[in-house]
Automatic annotation (TrEMBL):
InterPro entries the record matches: AAA+_ATPase, ABC_transporter-like_ATP-bd, BCAA_Transport_ATP-bd_LivF, P-loop_NTPase
UniProt xrefs under Pfam families: ABC_tran
Coiled coil: none
Family, as annotated: Belongs to the ABC transporter superfamily.
A GO molecular function held by the record: ATP binding
Gene3D superfamilies documented for this protein: P-loop containing nucleotide triphosphate hydrolases
Keyword field: Amino-acid transport, ATP-binding, Nucleotide-binding, Transport
Protein name: ATP-binding cassette domain-containing protein
Domain ABC transporter, chain residue ranges per copy: 3-238
Amino acid sequence: MQLEVTGVSAGYQRDIDILREVSVIARKGQLTTIIGANGVGKSTLLKTIIGQLRPHKGTIRWGETDLTRHGPHDLVGMGIAYVAQRHALFPEMTVAENITMATWSFRHDKARSRGAADQVFARAPHLAEFAGKRAGLMSGGQQRLLQLELALLSDPQLMLIDEPTVGIDPKRAGQIYEHLRRIVAEEGRTILMVDQNVIAGVDVADYIYVLELGGNKIEGSRAVFDAQYRDRIADWLF
Ligand SMILES: Nc1ncnc2c1ncn2[C@@H]1O[C@H](COP(=O)(O)OP(=O)(O)OP(=O)(O)O)[C@@H](O)[C@H]1O
């Protein structure tokens, strides 16, 4: 299945559109990155896809399902995980407790809930040493990795990720991007992410969209992007 956003206009106040007829496709089994200057509406687009904001124009389809008829609470059941930019972990709780909280949606499946910590620590082994420590004590990169792993516990087909490496040093950011590539290439999941880290966000992508003034500016596969647009990215964004 793929996610198709077609001609979507939306905003926070009546008559003030942040998104202006935006169209984006997250192709199955690919990593799609959306870039654009600060405040262009990247986070707003993700909030509209997950149903936190209602578009007043356009359609959002996940396969045959019209997502504009659903809200954020329906996502997990539809195979979609949303990784927000912040406020996603409980910093005062331990890593193990955060994992338990993330199993809430399948708490009645005891075997699966019990296996959640094993799954997280098998996939991201260096998080295991923090199991009994407060999540807020981990580095920004480790917290982001945990957040991604918690989202994966629901076994999503589609991950929507808001700024995977914001505030994270370049080395750890590189590890996060490698992790995202594995999620796509080895597990066959689909990722749609918005990113301010333009160079890395484009490098890791299969397909790229550039937004400007709340609308579509440029798009293309990475090969096309590299050949035609890479030198001009800085002009559009800064
Ligand atoms: N809850 C809100 N209420 C009103 N306006 C908002 C709200 N959230 C964002 N905006 C406005 O919408 C516009 C787009 O914001 P958005 O966060 O989507 O941009 P962005 O491209 O993700 O930028 P950034 O990378 O800086 O987060 C901005 O002008 C912002 O001030």
